[in-house]
Design brief:
By secondary structure, the chain is α+β, with helices and mostly antiparallel strands. The protein folds into 2 domains: 18-159 and 291-302, no CATH class; 164-283, no CATH class. Helices cover 50% and strands 15% of the residues. The chain has helices spanning 13-103, 115-120, 165-170, 174-180, 184-194, 218-228, 234-251, and strands at residues 108-109, 129-134, 139-142, 156-158, 206-207, 212-217, 256-265, 268-278, 300-301. Strands 1, 2, 3, 4 and 9 form a 5-stranded antiparallel β-sheet that branches. A 4-stranded antiparallel β-sheet has the order 5-6-8-7. Helix 5 (184-194) packs across helix 7 (234-251). The longest helix is centred in the first third of the chain and has 91 residues, at 13-103. The N and C termini lie far apart (145 Å).
């Protein structure tokens, strides 16, 4: 028995309509996608334009801010320079008036004579101004030895001439101190004396008892010298400490005394050189032990 295979036949009208419908749907979908892509491209372009505008606006704002900062800074500097010039002019006028008054014998309240005016601007005979203490307990500035014609504040209680050499030297700054001392121990003695009342630094001096106000040990002084003097060996620091203790006694006109004190280290007892300020020591310009207050030591500035 033979079976016949169906042969292809031409599409029917229905099939043709289906193909046309599919093509139409594809064309419509493609058109929609193209339209959406075009819209997205336009949106991206718009966003890029906005970003570019914002960046430009930011650059302009930064430029304006820089200009404002430069203007403000320039005005600030100009005003500061003007104020500084005016202040310097005022200080110069004050210094000139004080100089002339001092040369007339005036005793000026010391707190009203600024240290930098004394150091730089005062123009007086001898270039030296003396700090004194009067009976009223106040400090005054005068030319050395000049008496006050108005006799204010009473008689002079303490003047520079009354001070011990170590007190006078301790009042100099380091640069001036180095220039006025001929021996290193003298310079170190003055610096160590400053430390006696400077509680904010390393405690070089030790509070005493049994008639000693304070004392300074040779070992502590040697350590202090090594810490503050560049390039000093341990052995040389010990030698400098010994010589400095002697210088302190000499410059204090033996108000400071040198002696020995026992020291125990590692279970062994040694005798160590010390310099001592006793309770009975009389220091010009300073109260004796138990007196109220602690007026500053008088000085010469120049």
């Amino acid at each position: 028995m033979t079976t016949d295979t169906p042969t292809d036949e031409s599409q029917t009208p229905a099939d043709e309509q289906l193909d046309e419908l599919i093509d139409q749907r594809i064309q419509e979908a493609t058109a929609d996608l193209r339209e959406q892509i075009a819209d997205l491209e336009a949106e991206v372009t718009e966003l890029r334009d906005e970003l570019s505008q914002e960046r430009e606006a930011r650059r302009e704002a930064e430029t304006r801010l820089t200009d404002i900062e430069e203007t403000v800074e320039g005005e600030h500097d100009a005003r500061l320079n003007a104020l500084e010039a005016k202040a310097n002019g005022t200080r110069s006028m004050i210094a000139e008036l004080q100089s002339r008054e001092l040369e007339k014998g005036a005793h000026l309240a010391y707190e009203n004579v600024e240290p930098n005016i004394m150091d730089e601007l005062l123009d007086v005979d001898g270039e030296r101004v003396e700090r004194i203490t009067k009976d009223d307990g106040n400090h005054y500035a005068r030319l050395p030895g000049e008496e006050d014609a108005l006799n204010r504040g009473g008689a002079v209680a303490h003047s520079t001439a009354d001070l011990l050499p170590i007190q006078r030297l301790a009042r100099y700054d380091d640069e001036m101190l180095a220039s006025v001392t001929n021996r290193k121990p003298d310079e170190l003695a003055a610096k160590a004396w400053r430390e006696r009342d400077d509680s904010g630094r390393y405690q070089l001096w030790t509070s005493g008892s049994s008639g000693w106000r304070v004392y300074l040990k040779s070992s502590d002084l040697a350590d202090w010298i090594r810490a503050n003097e560049e390039g000093v060996s341990k052995n040389y620091a010990q030698e400098l400490a010994r010589r400095t203790l002697d210088a302190m006694a000499e410059l204090s006109k033996h108000r400071l005394i040198t002696t020995q004190k026992k020291r125990t280290t590692d279970g062994l007892t040694y005798k160590e050189n010390v310099v001592v300020l006793t309770e009975e020591a009389d220091l010009p310009g300073e109260p004796s032990l138990g007196d109220a207050g602690s007026p500053a030591t008088d000085e010469v500035a120049g």
